[in-house]
Amino acid sequence: MAERNGHFFKGLFIGGLIGAVIGILYAPKSGKETRENLARHADEIIAKAKEDFEKNKETNEKELKRLKNMESSVRDKASEVGNKINEFTHQSAEAVQNSKKRLKKAIHAGVEAYREKKKKKLF
Fold it and tell me: How far apart are CA 39 and CA 36, in angstroms?
């Protein structure tokens, strides 16, 4: 597959060169005019590319600042959520411990009541 792509690009390059040579040979203008035309177009393309680069640079810098602010906000929210989870976990653990203590007391009270009842039956 890579070899096939290599052949394609090689053919594209060679075809482009042949097309450029034929275009120059059959151009209605002289060589000097063609070169001046090409140079002018190249300068226009370079100027446009620089303009686009600067425009995109400003846009990208603004977007980068926005993303950094968003990152800070997300970190703060994540920290806040983590703290709430820790608090909830601690409260849940306390609730479980309290429930265990109440259950033990209830079981102990039930056992004592049973023993008292059993003692009363024996006497």
Answer: 5
